[in-house]
Specification:
Blueprint (H helix, E strand, L loop, with lengths): L3 H4 L4 H4 L2 H4 L17 H5 L12 H13 L3 H13 L4 H10 L7 H15 L2 H16 L5
Length: 143
C-alpha cells in the first residue's frame, strides 16, 4: 500500500489546512470521505464512532505538511501517532503510564518496545520507548 504522504505532493502554503483545501485526500478510518461527516449523516446513523477518529493516513499527510515547513519533530510525532491508531486504547494508556519516570524497569520498557515493533509494526513508537529507557537509565529514573 502506498502511503498518502507518498501519493500527494502537498504544498503547505496552498494545501493547508487540508480539510479546507484538499478534503479529497481525507477519509475516516472506515474509508468515508471527510465531506460525508455531516450532522444529517450522524442523525441518520450513517456515521459510526470509528468515523470520528483520525485516520493514520490523515496523520501521515499532516506529517508531510509539518516536514515541508521545517517542523521535523512535529512530523515525527504525527507519524508516531499514525502508528498508535492501530493499538487498542487501553494499551496506549498502559504504555503512557509505563513511560512515567520511576514507573517501569528498563526490561519492562524494552518489552513494550518489542511488543510495539513485533505485534503492531509500530517501529517509530518502539524506537521512542527504547530511547526513553536509555535516557531513564542515565538519569536514574527507572523503577
Amino acid at each position: 500500500m502506498t502511503l498518502p504522504d507518498q501519493q500527494a505532493e502537498l504544498d503547505p502554503g496552498r494545501d493547508y489546512p487540508l480539510a479546507s483545501h484538499r478534503p479529497e485526500l481525507l477519509r475516516t478510518p472506515t474509508g468515508k470521505p471527510i465531506d460525508e461527516l455531516t450532522m444529517q449523516a450522524v442523525l441518520s446513523g450513517d456515521i459510526a464512532p470509528e468515523d470520528l477518529r483520525i485516520s493514520p493516513d490523515t496523520l501521515r499527510l499532516q506529517a508531510q505538511v509539518a516536514e515541508r515547513v521545517g517542523r521535523t519533530q512535529l512530523a515525527r510525532n504525527f507519524r508516531r501517532a499514525a502508528e498508535l491508531t492501530a493499538l487498542p486504547d487501553d494499551l496506549v494508556l498502559s504504555i503512557y503510564n509505563s513511560l512515567r519516570p520511576n514507573a517501569s524497569t528498563k526490561q519492562q520498557l524494552t518489552d513494550i518496545a518489542d511488543q510495539l515493533e513485533n505485534e503492531y509494526t509500530a517501529t517509530l513508537c518502539a524506537e521512542l520507548v527504547r530511547e526513553a529507557a536509555d535516557v531513564y537509565e542515565r538519569r536514574d529514573i527507572l523503577a
